[in-house]
Design goal:
Among the domains are: 74 residues; 123 residues, Immunoglobulin-like (Sandwich). It has three helices and nine strands. The chain has a five-stranded mixed beta sheet, with no helix packed on it. Strands 1, 2, 4 and 7 form a four-stranded antiparallel beta sheet that branches. The protein is rod-shaped. By secondary structure, it is an alpha+beta fold.
Length: 287
């Protein structure tokens, strides 16, 4: 056992002894209260207080020993130096691989054009569409629209099949929405984009109610519905309200060319000039 362990053990024993002596002193004082003889009671009380004093001394000794016992012991019994083993590094031989195949350098094609991520701008109405506005009524800025739901048939707003992916051939698409707090007569606009290119639009004064169901639609020949991602933007006045997207898959059918009759020129007879012989005079013989 080293000095530190011995100090800890001594502190623990002194502390436990102090507790036991405290208990004995308290019991002696309690038993003295039940005695009737004055002299015996006085002796028992004196013995109880002496026992408590011894307990206090042991407790104080355990505290002093815990705080200063180890450092004091090292002054009289200095620790002997111990040998510290220093680890040494042993180099183990490694196997060096000698290359047998030499790779010839290859030419790596470096692309000349680097795709840079672009920031998607906030939807806005192109000036060419803005000049087509007819309404002079100020729209309500608090008008609200739901998300667009795309369907191939919006004849009944209560029963329609909405989807986000469609397949060619199609000739009609409808974007259904609900709205509220609209101002009748205010200008509203729907812009249809395919892969960022405007392919259809409608801008008219609002002819509906202040709230309910609404829709924007586009009907075109099947050959004009090219595959890709379509985006529909809805505006009230110049303020953007809602944007919806759907995907159209499959190649669009090829438009059937129409033939138009063309006039074919007919050959005309051109008169040609014919040489007409002229009479010649023949000399007559005189006799």
């Amino acid at each position: 056992m080293d000095i530190r362990a011995g100090i800890i053990a001594a502190v623990a024993l002194l502390f436990l002894g102090a507790l036991w002596i405290f208990r004995s002193g308290v019991r002696a004082l309690q038993s003295a209260r039940r005695l009737t003889f004055y002299r015996i009671k006085r002796q028992r009380v004196r013995g109880g207080w002496i026992t408590l004093l011894i307990g206090f001394l042991l407790l104080g000794t355990s505290v002093v020993l815990a705080l200063y016992g180890e450092s004091t012991a090292y002054q009289y019994f200095p620790p002997s130096p111990t040998v510290t083993l220093t680890p040494t590094i042993t180099l183990s031989p490694t196997i060096t691989l000698s290359p047998t195949i030499t790779l010839s350098p290859t030419i790596t094609n470096t692309p000349s054009t680097t795709d840079t991520a672009t920031i998607t701008p906030t939807p806005f109405i192109p000036p060419a569409i803005e000049v087509l506005f007819e309404s002079q009524i100020t729209p309500n800025a608090g008008a609200i629209f739901s998300q667009l739901q795309f369907t191939l048939n919006c004849a009944n707003f209560n029963e329609f099949t909405a989807a986000t992916v469609f397949r060619n051939p199609i000739t009609y698409m409808c974007g259904v929405f609900t709205y509220d707090q609209m101002t009748p007569g205010a200008q509203w606009t729907a812009l249809w984009y395919r892969e960022g290119k405007l392919v259809h639009y409608e801008t008219i004064p609002w002819d509906g109610e202040t709230g309910g169901f609404g829709y924007t639609e586009w009907e075109a020949p099947a050959s004009e519905w090219l595959p890709g991602t379509y985006e529909v933007q809805v505006f009230v006045g110049l303020e953007w309200k809602v944007v919806g997207q759907f995907i159209l898959e499959g190649d669009a059918p090829t438009a059937i060319p129409t033939t138009t009759p063309s006039l074919t020129p007919t050959p005309t007879h051109t008169p040609t000039t014919t040489n007409t012989p002229t009479p010649t005079r023949t000399p007559s013989t005189t006799q």
